[in-house]
């Protein structure tokens, strides 16, 4: 199905007022260790879901804040994270995003990541390139670790990964230019797509964390894999590397052995 990307990105832009509502962001429920939901999450999800159903009524909907057990993954489905970076939102650390991807028959075919604080809209459709606010974007040309800026994810909901993660971070930090931790996988993947970062990786991401970022990076000339170098399944949790391609290959071959 061909999606009108102007209409799609317009829906996400309309979430800006909801995303920037500090009063609603202060209404917090704890779902688990370091895992929170605010009224902003619920309001954005409800708004986007309703608008998508109006525009494309035949497409299923997967959202972070709902039960997704009845979905048919062989068909078409939206994959939405209404607020990627909820902890950032709670703290007023202005790096949160709405992330939306469309999966058809096992492949992400279009998507968008909207960062409302900077009013940056990253979007892509299969075969049509990747864009930031209407301008074509490409991944970086970095070909070595010493020339690379790499973002990390700490898997904060699962602290049992901490020893393994921080040992890995140290190895990579010693070999690259520097590391970054933004706290929103969607934004970090979008930054890889536009060349601000050379790679990003994190263990056990949820589908809504990486679905839109996958098509952004691929259409910008990069590659998204799991830690073994395989293509991730869009509706399953995965340990994800998004990169310009060259740096991702180095990460898989040199650093990710034994980490799944």
Notes on the structure:
With 260 residues, the protein is an alpha+beta fold. It has two domains: 5-136, Fructose-1,6-Bisphosphatase, Chain A, domain 1 (2-Layer Sandwich), CATH 3.30.540; 145-255, D-Maltodextrin-Binding Protein, domain 2, CATH 3.40.190. 33% of the residues lie in helices and 28% in strands. It contains nine helices and 14 strands. Strands 3-4-5-6-7-8-9 form a seven-stranded mixed beta sheet, sandwiched between helices. A five-stranded mixed beta sheet has the order 11-10-12-14-13, with helices on both faces. The chain has a two-stranded antiparallel ribbon with strand order 1-2. It is globular.
Average the pLDDT over all residues and give the rounded result.
94
Q: Biggest sheet: strands side by side, in what order?
A: 3-4-5-6-7-8-9
CATH superfamily of the largest domain: Fructose-1,6-Bisphosphatase, subunit A, domain 1
> What integer value in Å does the Rg equal?
17 Å
**CATH topology title of the largest domain:** Fructose-1,6-Bisphosphatase, Chain A, domain 1
Shape: globular
User: Which range does the strand content fall in?
Assistant: 25-35%
Number of domains: 2
| Largest β sheet strand count, sense and barrel closure | 7 strands, mixed
Uncertain regions spanning at least 5 consecutive residues: none
CATH top-level class of the largest domain: Alpha Beta
Share in helix: 25-40%
Strand/helix succession: HHHEEHEEHEEEEEEHEHEHEEH
Can you count the helices?
9
SSE class: alpha+beta
């Amino acid at each position: 199905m061909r999606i009108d990307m102007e209409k799609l990105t317009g829906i996400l832009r309309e979430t800006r007022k909801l995303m920037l509502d500090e009063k609603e962001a202060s209404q917090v429920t704890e779902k688990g260790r370091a895992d929170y939901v605010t009224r902003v999450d619920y309001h954005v999800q409800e708004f986007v879901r309703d608008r998508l159903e109006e525009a494309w009524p035949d497409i299923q909907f997967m959202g972070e804040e709902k039960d997704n057990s009845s979905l048919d993954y062989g068909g078409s489905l939206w994959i939405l994270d209404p607020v990627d970076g909820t902890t950032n939102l709670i703290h007023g650390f202005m790096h949160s995003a709405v992330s939306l991807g469309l999966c058809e028959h096992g492949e992400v075919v279009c998507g968008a990541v909207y960062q409302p604080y900077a009013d940056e809209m990253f979007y892509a459709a299969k075969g049509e390139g990747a864009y930031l606010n209407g301008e074509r974007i490409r991944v970086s040309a970095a070909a070595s670790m010493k020339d690379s800026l790499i973002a990390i994810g700490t898997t904060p909901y699962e602290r049992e990964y901490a020893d393994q993660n921080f040992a890995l971070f140290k190895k990579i930090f010693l070999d690259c230019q520097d590391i970054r931790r933004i706290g929103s996988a969607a934004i970090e993947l979008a930054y890889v797509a536009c060349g601000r970062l050379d790679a990003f990786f994190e263990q056990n991401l949820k589908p809504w964390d990486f679905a839109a970022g996958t098509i952004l990076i691929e259409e910008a000339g990069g590659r998204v894999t799991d830690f073994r170098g395989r293509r991730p399944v869009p509706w399953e949790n995965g340990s994800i590397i998004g990169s310009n391609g060259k740096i991702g290959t180095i990460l898989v071959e040199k650093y990710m052995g034994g980490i799944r």
